[in-house]
Design goal:
This protein is mainly α. 82% of the residues lie in helices and 0% in strands.
């Protein structure tokens, strides 16, 4: 496989995950009037599950499946999920409360900040080579 292909696929999955997360934040915060600090972790959780499924089936489909799907999901949740949750909450709180940014805009910035580190964690920790 072309060495750039996992990165390209990861970005494609990530872009779809951004859509999942932003729609969830919009539905929860703007439509349902849930506080953005409650809407954010719910939206991140949905995006984490979405991204895990697509990364396992498409981005790193050729990687070792040792330990099974549960072990891989735990690694993904602990690395990518925790980074996404902490990064998103930190950036969201800073931008929404401090800079008075709209929650969806702030969430887009937060997602961008976490993206590259999440790729590295997925490639080297979660879906590592055998």
């Amino acid at each position: 496989m072309n060495p750039w292909m996992p990165f390209a696929r990861s970005n494609t999955v990530g872009a779809a995950g951004v859509g999942v997360q932003l729609v969830a934040v919009w539905l929860l915060a703007d439509v349902a009037h849930v506080h953005y600090l409650l809407a954010t972790p719910a939206a991140v959780g949905l995006a984490v599950v979405h991204n895990f499924i697509w990364h396992r089936r498409w981005t790193w489909y050729d990687r070792d499946k040792a330990g099974g799907i549960f072990a891989a999901f735990v690694r993904f949740a602990v690395t990518n999920g925790a980074l996404s949750l902490a990064g998103n909450l930190g950036v969201m709180a800073t931008l929404v409360s401090g800079a008075h940014a709209e929650p969806v805009v702030a969430n887009g910035v937060a997602i961008s900040v976490c993206g590259l580190l999440n790729f590295w964690l997925g490639d080297s920790v979660v879906f590592r080579r055998a």
